[in-house]
Amino acid sequence: MAYKDILVYVDAAPTAAARLDAAAQLAKRQGAHLVALHVQAPPFTPVDLLGTGVTADLIEWQIQQAQAQAEAAHKAVQAAEQRHGLSIEWRKVDGAIDATVVEQSRYADLIVLPPNTPLTDLTTPASAGAGSVVMAAGRPALIVPNNYANAAIGQRVLVAWKPSAEAARAVHDALPLLQRAEAVTVIRVNPDPEEPKHNPGFDLATHLARHGVKVTVTPVLAPDTTAGDVIVEQARTLRADLIVMGAYGHSRLRELVFGGATRSLLQAPPVPVLMSR
Fold first, then answer.
1. What residues form DSSP beta bridges with 7?
2. What is the second-level CATH architecture of the domain 156-272?
3. How far apart are CA 151 and CA 148, in angstroms?
4. pLDDT (tens digit per residue) in 38-57
5. CA–CA separation, 99 and 95 (whole Å)
């Protein structure tokens, strides 16, 4: 089992290089075709309350900026090809960013995305919203930290487990990585008292072992600590280079509301995080 098509979202930000390095590394290990997707959003036309009209100069300036960003993204892809000795398909598509990434992801086994950008960050070019894409794509997404430095991915894996559909989907989607890992640790943070006492992840470990995964189980009791903080601390303790977890969230009046651990790891992942919905 392996990924055969990997899609990486590339914008004009300097951090796109980290994403490309992660995606290229995985593509080479998996023997996958790698597509670098850049989405050119349409010009923003503000509501004209005074009836004066939006000037053609403003529209033209936005188009020029978008074209410059596309060129910068393409150059980043070409540089990654040189660094990794890998052919990367360049794909530029016009449209709304998140919707276009979701549409293009239908034909990929894995999406590589940046972390969610804080709403207060007005300096970073518009990019794909990792949370929105994860919730809508129906494909696993690898969220790559902005400071990722071309390190190994998937040698030492932490699986943040809970007996839910989202977590089960994430584990299944991560099998191509888990089967090649040197060590996989399943943690169950603060198991529900109603769960069987013998099963804070042991049944999952048995299932993974049948797939040839080298796995250990570590229940973690930390009732006064958030699940996100526990996952990050365990990742550091285990020197994990990949976290696998389900993405939890729902729409409330058209606003995405994420669970605490999902939200924190979407915004500030300590290492690459594979999420599935």
1. 35, 111
2. 3-Layer(aba) Sandwich (3.40)
3. 7
4. 999 888 776 554 455 566 77
5. 8
